[in-house]
Amino acid sequence: MDPVVRRLLWNTVTQARESGKVIVITSHSMEECDALCTRLAIMVKGRFMCLGSPQHLKSKFGNVYILKVKVKTEDKLQDFKFYITRTFPDVRHFGAS
């Protein structure tokens, strides 16, 4: 969705919410949730794991970071993966997205 249409949709949802309507949204975007939601539920494998305000959930679970990197050659990628796993031993996943 382009930025103009996204803003139009966000404004429409916000107006509906402010008029007292309940709106259920599914999203992977925390930016979208921050802009539109007063309460969030996080689901894992189809089960609700937590419920709260965006600020509450960010303060409780906000210690997760996502790093996206583009490299030109496979050998540079392997060097980078080695550096990251050595520097951040708790890293959980490497993969293309």
TrEMBL record:
Q: Which InterPro entries match?
A: ABCA, P-loop_NTPase
Domain of life of the organism encoding this protein: Eukaryota
Name a single GO cellular component. Answer: membrane
Gene Ontology molecular functions:
ABC-type transporter activity; lipid transporter activity
Protein name, entry field = ATP-binding cassette sub-family A member 3-like
| Source organism of the structure | Carlito syrichta
